[in-house]
Amino acid sequence: MNPEIQPQQHIESKEKPDFRISIGVHRHGPKEGIAGHLSSEGKQLTEDYFTFVSDEEEIGGVDVEHSPVGRTQETAQIFSDVISRKQGNEKIKSNRADERLSEGDVAEHPELIEEYGGRGGKWIKGWMEAERRSIPNVKTGKETAADFADWLLSKISDRQKQGGAQEIQAFSHGPVMVAFIAKLEEKTGEKILPENLEIFIGSYLSFMSFNADSAHPDIVNFSFGNKKLEIPFSILQELIKENQFMADVLKDFSDDTVKSWLNNENLSSKNKRVFQGFEIINSIDGAVNADREVSLVKIVGAGSYPQHVHKESDAIFTIVSGSAIFLSGDERREIRAGDKIKIPRDLPHGFELKEGDILEFISIQSPPIRNPETGQEDFHLTDFV
């Protein structure tokens, strides 16, 4: 589990320099099995496809982005290699991964696909209708769509601020494309996806495009197949706010805000408590809200702090000081000041500290893990150690 990439501050109303951005989003090439890497035939087909594209279209200098999943990395690398070979190394300006382009490991869990009725349109429908994660590291379809919309708006926002022109070629997954378009259909009332999703799910290297410029600063032009739409940024922002991981809407606080929370005078006015070895100061934002809790959590001393889950609450941790080993199931990863970690409900998590180590982090929980009326904690130990 990696520290989360934070969404950018989106479109502001003040005047911006002239800009133009073109974004193409491809599905990866043919893979081996449900969750495999590209097959040998898939690699060759992908290379042939992008060779054809490079012969037909001159690339002006492109930033390449892809989800962290192997098959999209491979597809992105084949694209980069073909363009570099055919049109010159200078055509590929960057190549990087972004978690917001991921489908959330859905293909790693064939039982989820089976639950929703096969590998085509039925399971997509079930995934899109799911209100919560049935498996901790598998995002719902709505979260997947919101993550993609956040990625898209962050790219446009960055280009708006900087000015100039940019081309991005991104490599993602069929479920990401379907999830985003399904939410777009819901928001606009337009029919965009084909009637038979079975055919689309089986189609590799599918493509959709987005274009925005300073002539129409609040609109992105969307194209998928024969369908073209002008999408107001406000629709994408609504999609993000309504469907993103719950704690995401709470994490946009400034450095000055954090300093005010961590001010000694502020903290000394709050009551400390200890629970399961965690020292906790609740309501450091000075508020008591039914929908959230902002706490400072401190862990001191050597040893393991038990892995547990919160069944009803999502959270996001911002590490303030110190370091530790973050535990999640069989995963072990070092964390340190500045890291941000999403903790969706039902995700096992705990910590391991060395002698003399101290870890402090801000925890934003939505809803609060501790019931303010009963004092009962949404804290459930797991079998992981």
Structural features:
single chain; 385 residues; alpha+beta; Rossmann fold; Jelly Rolls; 2 domains; seven-stranded mixed beta sheet
- Overall mean pLDDT stands at 86
Number of DSSP E strands? 18
| CATH architecture group name of the largest domain | 3-Layer(aba) Sandwich
Sequence of strands across the biggest β-sheet: 3-2-4-1-5-6-7
CATH H level, superfamily name of the largest domain: Phosphoglycerate mutase-like
Distance between the termini: 17 Å
What Rg do the Cα atoms give? 23 Å
Q: Give me the CATH fold name of the largest domain.
A: Rossmann fold
The oligomeric state is single chain
Largest sheet entry: 7 strands, mixed
CATH class of the largest domain: Alpha Beta
List the helices and strands in order: EHEHEHHHEHHEEEHHHEEEEEEEEEEE
Overall 3D form: globular
- Which runs of at least 5 residues are low in confidence (pLDDT < 50)? 1-14
Tally of helical segments:
10
Summing up helix and strand content along with how strands pair, one would put the structural category as alpha+beta
Strand content: 25-35%
Number of domains as seen in the coordinates = 2
Question: Helix coverage percent of residues?
Answer: 25-40%
